[in-house]
Amino acid sequence: MNMFSSVKKDEKTGQKRKKGIYPGSFDPVTLGHLDIIKRASKLSDELVIGVLKNSSKKPLFSVEERVALLKKVTGDIPNVRIEPFYGLLVDFARIEKADFIVRGLRAVTDFEYEIQIAQTNHKMCPEVDTVFFTTSVEYSFVSSSLVREIASYGGDISAFVPKCIMKDIYEKYNKRTEE
Ligand code: ADP
Q1: Which terminus of the chain, N or C, has fewer Cβ atoms within 10 Å?
Q2: How far apart are CA 154 and CA 145, in angstroms?
Q3: pTM listed for this prediction
Q4: Which of 34, 47, 106 maximizes ligand 1 atoms within 8 Å of its Cβ, making it the mutation to test the pocket?
Q5: What is the CA radius of gyration of the chain?
Q6: What does the alpha-carbon distance between residue 60 and residue 1 come to, in Å, rounded to a whole number?
Q7: What counts of helices (H) and strands (E) characterise the chain?
Q8: Are 51 and 83 within 8 A, CB to CB?
Q9: What domains appear along the chain, each with residue ranges and CATH number?
Q10: Residue 103, beta-bridge partner list
Q11: Do residues 98 and 19 touch, judged by C-beta distance below 8 A?
Q12: What spacing in Å lies between the alpha carbon of 36 and ligand 1's midpoint?
């Protein structure tokens, strides 16, 4: 993580470039995440995807592997950067000097949880707002946990994750069953 990222200004206008951060577990990244990344990157000068190392969750992929998968699927989006982060989101937002946090909303159940987190974060860090993107309907039911469940039984995940990472996901489970 770059601890000293400075505020970048637009060369022509001198205005501060708008930086968004999209935090999450991304265990693994899905087509639903990728849809939000593509849409949010169009509205930001720079979008930093923050991959959370959460000590209370035992992820399928390590934080380094999740970062690598995200790099693979966002390689063609020039203004996207992937960074691991640990601890509080507001601290990561301050280090990055972010203007806003991006989150995705799938259903009413997401909303109840997300509004509480957004309000808490705003209280702790009033200079950063949370911006919500509603899911594209075709991905409204897609989640990392659903992908893990299907892949663990060798089922077809091609409708839920980018093609280029399918092998990585299946290999993870083959490795696991051999252990
Ligand atoms: P977290 O553990 O922080 O919820 P996730 O990786 O599950 O991390 O999700 C990161 C963000 O992406 C959350 O805001 C979540 O609501 C959003 N998201 C996840 N899946 C989808 C989807 N299919 N469509 C839109 N947003 C999604």
Answers
A1: C
A2: 14
A3: 0.90
A4: 106
A5: 17
A6: 22
A7: 6, 5
A8: yes
A9: 19-140 (3.40.50.620)
A10: 132
A11: yes
A12: 9
Report how far residue 54's alpha carbon sits from residue 38's, in angstroms, rounded to the nearest whole number: 25
Residue 40 is predicted with a pLDDT of 97
pLDDT at residue number 10: 67
Distance from residue 16's CA to the centre of ligand 1 (Å)? 28
The whole-number pLDDT of residue 115 equals 95
Nearest CA to ligand 1 atom 10: 24
Centre a 10 Å sphere on the Cβ of residue 156 and count the other Cβ atoms it contains: 9
Between the CA of 104 and the centroid of ligand 1 the distance, in Å, is 6
pLDDT at residue 175, rounded to an integer? 52
Query: What's the confidence (pLDDT) of residue 15?
Result: 72
Residue 179: the pLDDT is 42
| Close Cβ partners of 144 (under 8 Å, ≥ 6 residues apart) | 25, 26, 27, 28, 29, 30
Q: Which residue out of 21, 29, 30, 33 has the highest number of ligand 1 atoms within 8 Å of its CB and is therefore the one to mutate? A: 33
Catalytic residues: 33, 57, 106, 144
Low-confidence ranges of the chain (pLDDT < 50): 1-4, 176-179
Cβ proximity of 80 and 34 under 8 Å: no
Q: Taking each helix axis from N to C terminus, what angle separates 166-178 and 144-152, rounded to the nearest 10 degrees?
A: 50
pLDDT at 27: 97
pLDDT of residue 81: 98
